[in-house]
Design goal:
The protein is of the alpha+beta class and 211 residues long. The protein has 8 helices and 7 strands; from the N terminus they run E-H-H-H-H-E-H-E-E-H-H-E-E-E-H. The strands form 2 sheets. The chain has a 5-stranded antiparallel β-sheet, with helices on both faces. The protein has a two-stranded antiparallel ribbon with strand order 1-2. A hairpin with a 4-residue loop joins strand 3 and strand 4. Helix 1 packs across helix 2 and helix 1 packs parallel to helix 8. The N and C termini lie far apart (39 Å).
């Protein structure tokens, strides 16, 4: 008989950078993505509880919700913390340019919507940002059109695309981010830095606005 999973009710739930990326990497909802979305939006508000986990994940029972939590912990997608990390009070329009600039070693980054318009830019001239955003919209449409080939036939789980140099290093990378019914594309010039708290902050900010 398997041991019953229990919660530490004194801890706050947080998404790791890997968890934040998984939460928005696909438009297809599942209990794990719903649970991560709930943590990103509301995990700071109160210590974790069984009721909140069930509500976030849409699970049919507490045991089922706990199984989702256990899986996400094993994948290092979530973690518990003694103190909450409340979201910034800075508006999204002011926050984005500096925030996305920190996601690239070269400081060159851009956030565009699925219509090919850029919402924020760092390190790119305005004219270049407009053209890159339009390119990103085309890449998102291409990725959507060939999603079944990539996932089912080639078993490629990632939806990111990149333009690389002859050594294989990314010169311009495109990361689709799906928040609720809205899709964005994060474009990184040079080496990306998505394994820090800045990326979690970006996903949190978008989730609070659009999810």
């Amino acid at each position: 008989m398997s041991e019953r999973l229990t919660l530490n009710h004194s801890l706050y739930a947080e998404a790791t950078p890997a968890g934040a990326y998984y939460a928005v990497a696909s438009p297809t909802p599942d209990p794990s993505r719903r649970l991560l979305a709930g943590i990103l939006k509301e995990g700071f508000a109160a210590p974790v509880s069984e009721e909140r986990l069930v509500a976030w994940s849409g699970a049919a029972s507490v045991d089922q919700a706990m199984q989702h939590v256990y899986r996400l912990q094993k994948l290092d997608f979530i973690q518990g913390t003694d103190a909450p990390s409340p979201p910034t009070d800075v508006s999204l329009e002011i926050l984005l340019p500096n925030l996305i600039g920190n996601l690239s070693e070269s400081g060159r980054a851009l956030l565009a919507d699925d219509n090919g318009f850029y919402l924020a830019s760092s390190g790119f001239l305005h004219e270049a940002a407009e053209e890159i955003a339009a390119l990103a919209g085309d890449i998102l449409a291409l990725s959507t059109r060939h999603a079944l080939l990539l996932k089912n036939n080639l078993n490629i789980g990632s939806s990111a695309w990149a333009i690389s140099d002859p050594t294989g290093r990314s010169e311009l990378a495109f990361y689709p981010l799906h928040v609720g019914s809205q899709a964005f594309i994060l474009i990184i010039g040079g080496t990306p830095r998505l394994q820090g708290e800045e990326f979690v902050t970006l996903v949190q900010a978008l989730s609070r606005r659009y999810s």
